[in-house]
Write a structure and sequence with these properties.
By secondary structure, the protein is α+β, with helices and mostly antiparallel strands. It is 35% helix and 16% strand. It contains 8 helices and 9 strands. It has a 6-stranded antiparallel sheet with strand order 1-2-3-6-5-4. The chain is globular, with a radius of gyration of 21 Å.
């Protein structure tokens, strides 16, 4: 007989006199009753009017109002265009693009993601149900990145162009990098009782909190008491990701499911290689700067 998860308290933060400011989703997951919400600033781009409206010609385009929200990751910003980003029929709740090649490859190529990754300083694009998270390089400045991102998103939404193009799954081979080809938290008849409970808890209690921070979570398996998870979007490169995993996700899973002994973060081999190459590139830049300074 399938065990049922206990009824969990609603994850609604309550105001208190505490001056704590939490940096990631872990606060909402672990210290639910004592969490004091940090003040997040939301900025918006002025209404964008089509050129035809300025010239006096009739226009059927609606104006676009895009809000931005800060995330715990200083290098990631959440854009909310008040429109559905991912088609509701899509099997995945998110799509992540980490390089230009992924924006062209099946199963979900995206012309908009390709243009966004072409912006100087943008390192990753993440699509949520109704938001877009942009991750920039550490040395890039939001003052230069934001205007270009605003412009590209507005242009695509005003034109009616599809943000994501879904390609038949038979058109690509299994194992190809897709950044979210399917919902890893979806129910599977082959799942064990424990895995089913883990997925239910991740889907109903943990995913909403992480999506608020501009990210998402992938379930990669359950082995030897360890839950294998992959953080996406803003949480992928966030300095507080370890806090999110340990104090938030791990604590909640271990509290409600006795078979869970811990949580392990999964990092793609390609991502590790990319990080190593970037580190070597930064070292070369520092060496060049040092040589020029010495010469001067």
């Amino acid at each position: 007989m399938m065990r049922k998860l206990p009824i969990l308290p609603t994850l609604r933060p309550t105001l208190s006199n505490s001056s704590r400011v939490w940096s990631c989703a872990a606060a909402r997951l672990f210290y639910q009753s004592h969490w004091t919400p940090s003040i997040t600033t939301a900025t918006s781009r002025p209404l964008i009017f089509p050129r035809s409206a300025l010239s006096g010609a009739p226009s059927h385009c609606r104006t676009i109002f895009i809000q931005t929200e800060n995330t715990p990751n200083v290098d990631a910003l959440k854009f909310l265009p008040n429109r559905q980003i991912l088609p509701k029929v899509l099997s995945s709740p998110f799509i992540e693009y980490l390089n230009p090649r992924s924006t062209l490859a099946p199963p979900y190529p995206s012309p908009l993601a390709a243009r966004l990754l072409g912006v100087d300083g943008v390192s990753a694009v993440f699509y949520g149900p109704d938001f877009i998270t942009i991750t920039k390089a550490a040395d890039a400045n939001w003052a230069h990145v934001k205007p270009e991102v605003f412009s590209l998103i507005t242009e695509v939404l005003n034109s009616g162009e599809r943000i994501v193009t879904e390609i038949d799954k038979g058109a690509y081979t299994a194992g190809q990098e897709d950044g979210g080809a399917q919902n890893s938290l979806a129910y599977n008849e082959g799942d064990s009782e424990v895995v089913g409970m883990i997925k239910e808890l991740l889907e109903t209690r943990i995913r909403p909190a992480i999506q608020d921070d501009g990210g998402d979570v992938d379930f990669c398996g359950f082995e030897n008491g360890k839950v294998l998870l992959k953080l996406r979007g803003a949480c992928r490169t966030c300095d507080s990701s370890t806090v999110t995993l340990r104090n938030g996700i791990e604590s909640m899973l271990m509290h409600y499911i006795e078979e869970v002994q811990g949580v392990t973060q999964v990092v793609d081999e390609a991502e590790l290689t990319s990080n190593e190459e970037f580190a070597r590139f930064e070292e070369k830049l520092k060496e060049r700067k040092g040589t020029r300074t010495a010469t001067a």
